[in-house]
Structure formats: structure tokens, C-alpha cells
UniProtKB/TrEMBL annotation:
Pathway: Isoprenoid biosynthesis; isopentenyl diphosphate biosynthesis via DXP pathway; isopentenyl diphosphate from 1-deoxy-D-xylulose 5-phosphate: step 2/6
GO biological process, one term: isopentenyl diphosphate biosynthetic process, methylerythritol 4-phosphate pathway
Record-linked HAMAP family: IspD (MF_00108)
Top-rank EC class of the record's enzyme: transferase
Annotated protein name in UniProt: 2-C-methyl-D-erythritol 4-phosphate cytidylyltransferase
Single GO MF descriptor: 2-C-methyl-D-erythritol 4-phosphate cytidylyltransferase activity
Gene3D superfamilies: Spore Coat Polysaccharide Biosynthesis Protein SpsA, Chain A
Domain of life: Bacteria
Family per record: Belongs to the IspD/TarI cytidylyltransferase family. IspD subfamily.
Record's function text: Catalyzes the formation of 4-diphosphocytidyl-2-C-methyl-D-erythritol from CTP and 2-C-methyl-D-erythritol 4-phosphate (MEP).
Chain positions of site Positions MEP for the nucleophilic attack: 152, 208
Length: 229
């Protein structure tokens, strides 16, 4: 049974505010996207990678990736305006039995975490990486007043990859097209069709590079990793 990875990389990077799309910003001298792809290229259980990009970035990315020789990147396809649309496009090109969906801008997930996730998804059909939240989380209303404080012991911070059986995630994405609200992660779509999602231990270092501070943090995480190896 094969494992494929869909990597949405078609975002605008508005919160990063850089001229260059944030997946092309450099981390230790190489584009963030290259670090992310290498994680999956070198994982023994991954068979194929589908990359989703903005139309105008596809040609340049193909040329860039040629020099890295990533043999598992089977297609680079055009994304949509929303992350959910980009993932949906990618899913149409991924034929694997098990599909992991991973943000292009999370370059630090480890092979150990991938092993845990793949093991669990093959049992449960829907599994996500997550870590317990460290802060107290409040719910607020549109006027900025606190409305409640959910118990922290019941809250997690969700990461990617998220893994699913192909049939299940395709069905969930198709169904979600009927809903006018965009989901901020893929497991939400699984919840919406009433299927249980299993949580697998993630890693605090598996950050999503979203704002300029995250880039500084990413360089630090990279340095620490280099010392540990
Ligand atoms: N229409 C979109 C929006 C997002 N993504 C991808 O989804 C991942 C997570 O999204 P996020 O970090 O929010 O990236 P952006 O949407 O680019 O950021 P912003 O919201 O600040 O514009 C990124 O790899 C991003 O490229 C995508 O493929 N297509
Ligand atoms: C999918 C995700 O990375 C899980 O944390 C996240 O929800 C994506 O968030 P975005 O900032 O809305 O793209």
C-alpha cells in the first residue's frame, strides 16, 4: 500500500510580507521548500510527492528542483485562492492509498514523527500531529470581550502532516465544496463528515513559518539541529 504526500505551496505569504513567496526564502542557504521536500524524498515509506504551486511559479520551481534531483516529485500542479482549494487540486493528482498533507513551510518535521503518523493512519484512516497548548486560550466575541476559557487539558495545537486514507480525504474534500466556509486544516473536513480523527504526538519544533519572527526562530532551530547531529 503506497504513501503519497500533497504539499500545498500556493499561498500568498501575506503575513510574512516579503517580496519573494515565503517557501522560497532561504534557511541555511537553501529555500524552505527544498528542506521540506528533502524530508519526504528521504523517507523510506514515501512513494510520491505532489507539489501545489501558484501558476506563475510552476516553471521556475521545476527548473530549481531539477538541480536537487528529487525523484519522488511526480507532479507540480496549480493551486487555488484558498489552502483548501490547493489541497483539493493536489489530491486529484495523488493516487497513493495513504495520503499525507503537509504545509510547504513546515521544514522541521522529523522522520520519527512521520513514522508515528504513518503507523497510526494505517490503523485509524485519519490521524494528525499535534502538541498540547502551553498558553491559556480564551474565546472572545467580535467586540474583543472574553466569553469563556476552555480547559487547557482539552486543547491541542494542530500541525501537519495530517494523514488519511485516499478515499476518505477525497470524499471529505468533495463534500466540503458544498460549504461556503473554508477550513483551516484538512482534518476539519473529516470531522464534518462525522469520521473520527486520531491525534498523534507532534513536536514543538515543527513550526509553520508564517511571520518574520518565525524565520528567526527557524534559523535557531536549524542551528540546534546541526549541533545535535
Ligand atoms: N491558497 C493557498 C494558501 C496557502 N497554501 C499553502 O498552505 C500552507 C500553509 O499556509 P500559510 O502558512 O497560511 O501560508 P500563506 O497562505 O501563504 O500565508 P498568509 O495567510 O500569510 O498569506 C503554505 O505552505 C501555503 O503555501 C496554498 O497552497 N494555497
Ligand atoms: C494546517 C495548519 O498548518 C494546521 O496548523 C494550519 O491550520 C494552516 O493555517 P493557515 O495559517 O490558515 O494556513
Amino acid at each position: 500500500m503506497s504513501v503519497g504526500v500533497v504539499i500545498p505551496a500556493a499561498g500568498q505569504g501575506k503575513r510574512m510580507g516579503s517580496k519573494v513567496s515565503k517557501q522560497f526564502l532561504l534557511l541555511d542557504g537553501q529555500p524552505i521548500l527544498v528542506h521540506t521536500l528533502r524530508l519526504f524524498e528521504t523517507h523510506p515509506q514515501v512513494d510520491e510527492i505532489i507539489l501545489v504551486m501558484k501558476k506563475e511559479e510552476i516553471r521556475g520551481t521545476e527548473e530549481m528542483l531539477r538541480s536537487y534531483g528529487f525523484a519522488k516529485v511526480k507532479a507540480i500542479v496549480e493551486g487555488g485562492k484558498e489552502r483548501q482549494e490547493s489541497v483539493h487540486m493536489g489530491l486529484q493528482h495523488c493516487q497513493s492509498d495513504w495520503i499525507l498533507i503537509h504545509d510547504a513551510v513546515r521544514p522541521f518535521v522529523t522522520h520519527e514523527a512521520l513514522d508515528r503518523l504513518i503507523r497510526e493512519v494505517k490503523v485509524t484512516k485519519a490521524a494528525i500531529l499535534a502538541v498540547p497548548v502551553k498558553d491559556t486560550i480564551k474565546q472572545i466575541n467580535s467586540e474583543g470581550w472574553v466569553t469563556s476559557t476552555p480547559a487547557r487539558s482539552e486543547l491541542i495545537s494542530v500541525q501537519t502532516p495530517q494523514g488519511f486514507s485516499r478515499d476518505l480525504i477525497v470524499q471529505a474534500h468533495e463534500k466540503a465544496l458544498e460549504d461556503p466556509n473554508w477550513a483551516t486544516d484538512d482534518s476539519m473536513l473529516i470531522e464534518q463528515i462525522g469520521f473520527p480523527v486520531k491525534v498523534v504526538e507532534g513536536e514543538y519544533n515543527n513550526i509553520k513559518i508564517t511571520t518574520p519572527e518565525d524565520l528567526v526562530l527557524a534559523e535557531k532551530i536549524w542551528e540546534i539541529r546541526r549541533v545535535e547531529v
